[in-house]
Write a structure and sequence with these properties.
Strand content: over 45%
Mean pLDDT: 96
Organism: Klebsiella michiganensis
Helix content: under 10%
CATH class of the largest domain: Mainly Beta
Number of strands: 23
Keywords: Lyase
GO biological process, one term: pectin catabolic process
Domain Oligogalacturonate lyase: 2-293
Oligomer: single chain
Number of domains: 2
InterPro entries: Ogl_dom, WD40/YVTN_repeat-like_dom_sf
Low-confidence stretches: none
């Protein structure tokens, strides 16, 4: 139930390899997760964070008070995309997508919920939608409803690519709810991200199996002009996990060459499209940089 307060008992352990203290904040008997790695999770003072929890049998958003060791339920009912939501720049709101159809804003003080944008009946909201730095604009991907299908395993993920679903990269004004199409193609699109502090530049990807996509990472101007690829794949090479450095200075991503045991962290300059290898890294799910990379 929205507004419900859940007391938490933090579990403190020591990592056997590093000796660092590890604190488990959510209970072991309930599946919980944080939002997507580059979406805002913590309040600016670091005292609270949002997470997705299945306390009621389906995913909802919760706000965790670290000092108080308690969580407040922010949303209720099934259908929350608990990976894509985020806290607003001013810490006053939670933004998230409900039932693949509605972009909603939750006021953290009153828990009042507002539908800011309704997806057209012929389309489905897909993936993680991302706001610009001042939380006035958003970019997202929609898939034609007749082409959309749930992706519950990697086999379905691969097969979906070859169906060539019709997708569109959209911009939403978060004050008016007005939507504008930036790019529409018969191609699986994903991972839209505003360049921080530059509302004129949007990164997005050609989604799909690493051995099938032509070139994953792309930039496009917000007015739909000047679409350009960040880097072309070589044979046996794949790129993934792209994200903007928080100050907007570079796009980071992970590169992998077939049969190479290592992964490599790269930096792409958004102005010159120069790509530079930074370091070898171990295989991992997600990584993130500090403010300036």
């Amino acid at each position: 139930m929205k507004g419900k307060i859940i007391p938490l008992s933090f579990l403190h352990t020591q990592d056997s390899e590093t000796g660092h203290q590890v604190i488990r904040m959510t209970p072991p008997h309930v599946i919980c997760h944080r939002n997507y790695f580059y979406q805002k999770c913590f309040t600016r003072d670091g005292s609270k964070l949002i997470f997705g929890g299945a306390f009621e049998g389906h995913w909802n958003y919760y706000l965790l008070d670290i000092a108080g060791q308690q969580a407040t339920q922010l949303t209720d009912g099934p259908g929350d995309n608990t990976f894509g939501g985020f806290l607003s720049a001013d810490d006053r709101s939670l933004w998230y997508v409900k039932n693949n159809q509605q972009l909603r804003r939750v006021d953290l003080a009153s828990l009042e919920e507002q539908v800011v944008y309704q997806v057209d009946d012929q389309w489905v909201a897909y993936g993680t939608w991302v706001a610009n730095s001042d939380c006035s604009q958003m970019v997202g991907i929609e898939i034609k409803k007749s082409d959309w299908q749930p992706l519950t395993d990697w086999g379905k993920f691969r097969a979906f690519y070859f169906t060539e679903p019709e997708c569109r990269l959209i911009n939403i004004d978060l004050h008016s709810g007005e939507q504008r199409v930036v790019l529409q193609e018969k191609r699986w699109l994903g991972h839209p991200i505003y360049r921080p502090f530059d509302d004129g530049t949007i990164a997005f990807c050609h989604e799909g199996p690493r051995d099938a996509i032509d070139a994953r990472m792309w930039l496009i101007n917000a007015d739909s002009s000047h679409m350009r690829k960040v880097r072309q794949h070589r044979s046996g090479e794949s790129f993934t996990h792209e994200f903007w450095v928080p100050d907007g200075s570079a796009l980071y991503y992970v590169a992998h060459q077939e049969n190479d045991p290592h992964r490599y962290l790269y930096r792409a300059d958004p102005a010159t499209l120069e790509n530079r290898q930074l370091m070898a890294i171990p295989p991992c799910s997600h990584l993130m940089s500090n403010h300036d990379g």
